Amino acid sequence: MTPTLRLNFSAVASPLLAATLTLAIGFATHDAAAQATIRSRDLSEAWSAAPSLLPSTSATPSWNAQPNSWRLGVAIQNVDTGVVLTDVEAGMPAQQAGLETGDIIVNVDGFQVGYVEGALFDLGDEIRRRVDQNGKVDFLVFDNRNRRLQNLPVTLVQQNAASVRGEVVCKERVTISQQAVLTVRLRDVTYPSWQNVEVGKQVITNPKHPPIPFSIAIDRTQLYPDHKYAVDAYLVDRGQILLQSSAAVPVTPLANVPTIQVNLVKVGAGVPANGAYAVGQLDQINQWYKQYLRRDASPQELNAWQSYLQAGKSPQDIQAYILGSSEYFDRLGNQRDPYLAALYQTLLGRQPTAAEMQQFIAQYQQYGGARTDFVRDVMRLTP
C-alpha cells in the first residue's frame, strides 16, 4: 500500500511512515546538478490519454522536519506520473483553485514532481523553490474529470493560516436582489467595549438559498489564547441590512473548531459605517499612551490606530507597539535592564526575581533589538 501524505505542514514527531500521516514540509534544497541528471526540464511530450497511476516500486516519501511557510491543503500519493490528490481540505487553496480528489499535479512551474526514474521529487520542495513572496505558484495538473492537462495558478496561504468553517442558515422569508452581499465575520469580543474588531471575514456576493457554507481564513499569529472570539453574519441588500445573526456564536479558533451554524433573522437597520468602532477602544488606546508614555495620543495617532483596527488587527498589538516603541524605551533611560524590569512588572504584575530577570534578558536578546516583536510574543504567552 502506497503511503498517503497530508500536506498540512504541521510538525511531525518522527519520520516513521504509516498509511496516513501528517507531513512537515521543510523543503530541503536538493543538489541542483544531481537534480538535472535525473529529470528533464520538463515534460517533453503532451499526454494524449490518462496517465498511469501505478506507483513506483520505491514508493518511500521524503520527510523533512523543518517547518514550511506555505500551505496547500491536500493529501497525496507520489507516483511515476506526478502527485495524485487523495484528499482536498475544504476552504484551503487547493479547493479554492478547483482541485479535487483524483487530480494529478504533474509539475510545479515546469519542474516534475513525484517519482522520476525512481527518484522522488517532493511536491513540497518544489513549491518552496517556485512560490513567490505572495504565495503564488503555477501547477500543471491532469484534471481527472475531463481527462485533460491544464495550467493552474494557485495562491497558497501562510503556514500559520487556519480557518473557521460552518454554514449560515435562515428560516425567514425575504426577497433579495442579485446585489445582495453576505458577510460572515470572526470578531475579537474579549471586552464589551470592543464592537467591531474583525480577525477575519468572508464576503459572499449574490448568496444562494441557505444553508450557505462559509470558511473564514485566519492568521494564528493574530490570535491570543486569553482572548474571546465569536462568529456573526449580516446580509446587506440595496443599502440596508436585511438579515443579521440572532446571536454571535462563540468559537475557540486556536483549537480544532467544529463546523458551526450561524442563524440569520430579519432586522431593519442601516448599514454601519466602515469606521463604526466603539469609542471605548480609542479611550483604551489613549489610556495606554497616558500610562506608558505619560501623554495623550494625538488625533492623528488615534485615527491611524482606528484604521489599524478596521483592518482586523487586535488592540493587543497596539499595546505591544507602544510598549516596544523607542519613546517608551527612551523614557526608561534608554537602558535595557530598567526597560525590561518595567516591562516585566507591566505584563506580569510583579517584580521579577533575579533568576527571572536573567531569563527575561536572555529571551530579549534573542530578538536582536526587535522590541515590539518581543513584547507581542511575551503577551501571547502571558495568561
Automatic annotation (TrEMBL):
<feature type="signal peptide">
    <location>
        <begin position="1"/>
        <end position="18"/>
    </location>
</feature>
<keyword id="KW-0732">Signal</keyword>
<dbReference type="Pfam" id="PF09619">
    <property type="entry name" value="YscW"/>
</dbReference>
<dbReference type="InterPro" id="IPR001478">
    <property type="entry name" value="PDZ"/>
</dbReference>
<dbReference type="InterPro" id="IPR036034">
    <property type="entry name" value="PDZ_sf"/>
</dbReference>
<protein>
    <recommendedName>
        <fullName>PDZ domain-containing protein</fullName>
    </recommendedName>
</protein>
<dbReference type="Pfam" id="PF13180">
    <property type="entry name" value="PDZ_2"/>
</dbReference>
<dbReference type="InterPro" id="IPR038255">
    <property type="entry name" value="PBS_linker_sf"/>
</dbReference>
<dbReference type="InterPro" id="IPR053196">
    <property type="entry name" value="Lipoprotein_YbaY-like"/>
</dbReference>
<feature type="domain" description="PDZ">
    <location>
        <begin position="72"/>
        <end position="118"/>
    </location>
</feature>
<dbReference type="InterPro" id="IPR039366">
    <property type="entry name" value="Pilotin"/>
</dbReference>
